[in-house]
Amino acid sequence: MSISDMTTRQDLIAAASRYVTEGGLETDLARLVAHKSVSQSEGTPEDLMAYLTGEMQPMLTAMGFDVAIHANPRPGGAPLLTGVRIEDPALPTVLVYGHGDVCNGEAHRWREGLSPFVLTREDDKLYGRGTADNKVQHLINLKAMELILKENGRLGFNAKVIIEMAEETGSYGLRDFFEEKKDLLASDVLIASDGPRLAADTPTMFMGSRGGMGIDLTVDLRPSDHHSGNFGGLLADPAIILAHAIASITDKRGQIRIKEWLPDSLTPDIREALKDLPPRRHDADWGQEDLTPSERVFGWNSMAVLAMANGNIDAPQNAISGKARATIQLRFVVGTDVEGVIPALRRHLDREGFPQVAVKPSRGEAFRATRFPPDHPWVKFVEQSLAETAGRKPHVLPNLAGSLPNDAFTEILGLPTIWVPHSHAECGQHGPNEHVLLPVMEEGMRLMTGLFLDIAEKGQSLPRRG
Ligand SMILES: [Zn+2]
């Protein structure tokens, strides 16, 4: 690298930093957050479309992308946006992904002074639904490219962008879209951002994700409730049966008791990769007892009860419910027999004496688990670039603990996938008071600008598709 190149890299990274410190990011993010682009029950198709037509399309068009908005291949699905910017077919092509949809605002659960669709700054925090998940994350990546384009007039690589609007409903239709548009999306690597950093003060990269599968459990014994005095002791209580059934799936510290639900992939190299990660917040008496906290969350499977219901919790009646139901979820790493999960649960419940518990997959698509080798040249390259910009080594995770539609990129598009998250674990995504941290945003802008400059300079030596 020559002296003048280095000045350029440093100057551009300084400009990236100013975009955050001088308020540009806050202004742009406020506009993005004001779109109620909810893909779950509170949302409307108009708001999903408006995020693409009102924000992503103009921004990318101004950057010289050839932008198209596509109908979802599945009926009733949300639209998708693609952007393509080819400088020279001989250069590497980077695919950037983001999701513009958010989960329900749940305004009543946010604390006083905060409102989900109004960006609110308090000290170094920016609050709003979708700030962390995922609006600021793709905003940063697009703005880093925009900055380089403004300063240099070119990126030095080809860029493609895909923005979906259904990630919070299991990326409905995304895989079908990728199958249809393989040529349009053909690239050499996915560089994207979602999820949290492992520790807020250290850059993180990960190459895959755990999968997630929801399962509905129902005990439906009779069409109506019955007086708990007149029938108590005579009629079976579906809530008690359901509670026992759920309790049979794990032990009291949440260790899964269904053998077929466990992975075979916690091999010595993965344990080695997880060994030096900083400690995670955890309850000492919870989870797989013989594993470290990092192994529990990045290398193992876990079950959660997402919701359970019978009667009316706000005004309980003196009655035995006719029906009780719950939705549970399995989070799993690669090396889990996904197709076997529901059959194994059925066999388990029958064996444990719960034939009355009906089992079916929850609405919405399951996320599959993926993991990309930590020693791939693209992984090493990105790790090196992040370390140079940040001045310290990033945390490198084989996979994220949460779920992403990463299999669509690895399996359908055949890409190495590298995620550089710009959020932090306590960001409140999927709950009230979601927020991002300005220092992490600033470093995120610096990291991505440095990374894109490095791809332009040295990316031609990295493995290409095919
Ligand atoms: Zn999410």
From TrEMBL:
- Domain named Peptidase M20 dimerisation is located at 209-352
Q: Which SUPFAM superfamilies does this one have? A: Zn-dependent exopeptidases
Highest rank taxon of the organism:
Bacteria
Which molecular-function annotations from GO does this UniProt entry contain?
Answer: metal ion binding; peptidase activity
User: Where, by residue number, does the polypeptide cross the bilayer?
Assistant: none
A Gene Ontology biological process term: proteolysis
Q: Which UniProt keywords are given for this protein, alphabetically ordered?
A: Hydrolase, Metal-binding, Protease
Entries under Pfam families matching the protein:
M20_dimer, Peptidase_M20
InterPro entries given in the database record: Cyt/Met_Dipeptidase, Peptidase_M20, Peptidase_M20_dimer
Name this protein carries in UniProt: Peptidase M20 dimerisation domain-containing protein
| Organism, as annotated | Pannonibacter phragmitetus
Which lineage ranks, top first, belong to the organism behind this chain?
Answer: Bacteria, Pseudomonadati, Pseudomonadota, Alphaproteobacteria, Hyphomicrobiales
